[in-house]
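Lab notebook, bench 4. Still working through the backlog of constructs that have no structural model yet. Next entry is a single chain of 430 residues. Request: give me the structure tokens for it.
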Amino acid sequence: MIERYTHPEMGHIWTLENEFRTMLQVEILACEAMNKLGIVPDDALKDIQTKADFRIERIKEIEAVTNHDIIAFLTNVAEYVGDASKYIHKGLTSSDVKDTALGVMMKQSADLLLSHLEKFHAVLKRRAAEHKHTIMIGRTHGIHAEPMTFGLKFALWMDETERNIERLKQARDFIAVGKLSGAVGTYSNIDPFIEEYVCEKLGIKAARLATQVIQRDRHADFLTTLAIIGSSLDKMATEIRNLQRTDIREAEEYFAPGQKGSSAMPHKRNPITCEKISGMARLLRGYAVAALEDVVLWHERDISHSSVERVILPDATIALDHMLRKFTGIVDKLLVYPEAMMANLNKTGGLIFSQNLLIALVSKGVLREDAYKWVQRNAMARWLEGADFKTNVEMDADIQKYLSKEEIEACFDPKPMLRHVDLIMSRFGL
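Model written out:
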């Protein structure tokens, strides 16, 4: 991922230094396990534990000759360890070390993303409580529908975020696995105890069965989960972008002192961060597709997944890390305009209360088809001719037979329509 979007905390996880350091930890732990089995002598283990190291530039020098990064890594480690290095990597294959280290790194990245999601959830909960009774128009198909509250919108996002937290926890469990079971997963030259020991020390689980590699459905699940979370943020960001439109302007991104919206138009206040969220969500969906393609490997394994994962795993986790950090800030400081919400709610001259009228007429014994026709003809007069909906309804001879002026007036009150908001919000502890 480019530097612009890379936060040091997440970026460090995917550095070559951390990757090789994690692989070295796998190798040392495997030697510890072999020591317990009597395979590695005490003095050799001590040398391995105290001397094992590497240098990135030296690994690159060796790889230029071997064209194999793991062999280059092992060769460099052996240069530090000396004679005891003959016990390092004994009975292992490259993917034993690479995939196990990858499981640790993915778990580290998932833990960091989960911490961001928890913070985002807390902000959503606070904003939902703050705007629990802030009335606004609800929209369906982009058209004014019926009143709702802005707090309900935040609560809806909070609910989805809770699902995303659960999804990511499950995905973390799927990818937090390791394997040290040899060339085709049969433990042909390594004791299964070594795998159990290493994975337990690393805080991950041992795969019940692997080929030469851990199966890539796990990685695909992780990447598709990140894509879902990104799409949730995209949905929320798109809503804010719509609410910030000049003709709506019910909410907008915080615009900092000194910030500029356009190089040409000094008046502009653009939702640039929300637009970035939407754009980066497209990347995550693309990475998910690539991860799904990686599920299919030839026989026990091939290496077609490796080049893909070197790009999509760092990029996807770094991208979502950036998105969560930025969008949490957007929601935290989101500017909200209740007056504009009320003005927009009243913009259609009461059309949004048409269902109230329909139900009131049906409750008086009018056939639903007739009631619908009477209300709709007055609504269409408002849409097409600009006639006052409420006045026309009050003067409609058919409606007058069933509803008094007071009963019609009651149909235009938004408060009864929001009487269950407290009940809904109580489901979220609000």
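Notes after review: The chain has a mean pLDDT of 97. The radius of gyration is 30 Å. Flag for follow-up if needed.
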